[in-house]
Amino acid sequence: MRRTLIIGLSAAVLGALAVLLGSLLNLGLTDVLLGAALGAALGLIPGVGPGRKLAAFLVGFVLAWVGYAIRAAVLPDVTASRAIVVFLSVFLITIACAFSRGRLPLWAAFLGAVAMTGAYEFTYAAAPYNFISDSVSTATGILVPIGFGFLVSVIAALLPEEDRHWDPPQDPMPSASSAKAEVSS
């Protein structure tokens, strides 16, 4: 519980500071909650080191960005074009992770694609012709809070594990199948 509170409160404080400082310094930070939450989730998922998570995340982020570049440069803004770009982005992310031989986790690359898409899709749909300026400012604006969230969770991972001596509550009304199993044993 203590570790969860430290991570959550640290992410909340850094997120609020990102909003305030971003506004004060006119940094154009966008979607701070989305970024901080994705960064924290990226860092919190166990089993893979932070460097590999971050590398896979960036692969997904960049390939989603490339998908938007393809849409803006050569495809009309129609449903079929979006379908092609979704296929290409997911396919390329999958190929990159597959060829890494397990070093780049697919889930982390997908989180990167989610970050870029979640932050930029609405802006792109409103003005696809502004791809160059809008995509750069959106990418910068989302990567800063992602970095904050990731940093909080990676540092918090250094904290000692919580005691896990909690037993889940027992079902007061056992089901018929569990009652039969107890009788037969």
How are helices and strands ordered from N to C? Answer: HHHHHHH
Strand content: under 5%
Helix content: over 70%
Overall number of strands: 0
Provide the gyration radius in Å: 21 Å
Give the overall shape: globular
Task: List unreliable stretches of 5+ residues.
Answer: none
The structural domain count equals: 1
Class by SSE composition: mainly alpha
Q: Helical element count?
A: 7
In whole angstroms, how far apart are the ends?
A: 38 Å
Overall pLDDT score:
86
Major sheet: none
Keywords:
185 residues, mainly alpha
Write the layout of secondary structure elements.
Layout: H1 2-24, H2 32-44, H3 50-74, H4 79-99, H5 106-126, H6 131-156, H7 176-184
Helix pairs in contact: 1-2, 1-6, 2-5, 2-6, 3-4, 3-5, 3-6, 4-5, 5-6
Q: What do these coordinates show?
A:
The protein is mainly α and 185 residues long. The protein has one domain. It contains 7 helices and no strands. It is globular, with a radius of gyration of 21 Å. The chain starts with a helix and ends with a helix. The mean pLDDT is 86.
Quick structural gist:
With 185 residues, the chain is mostly helical.
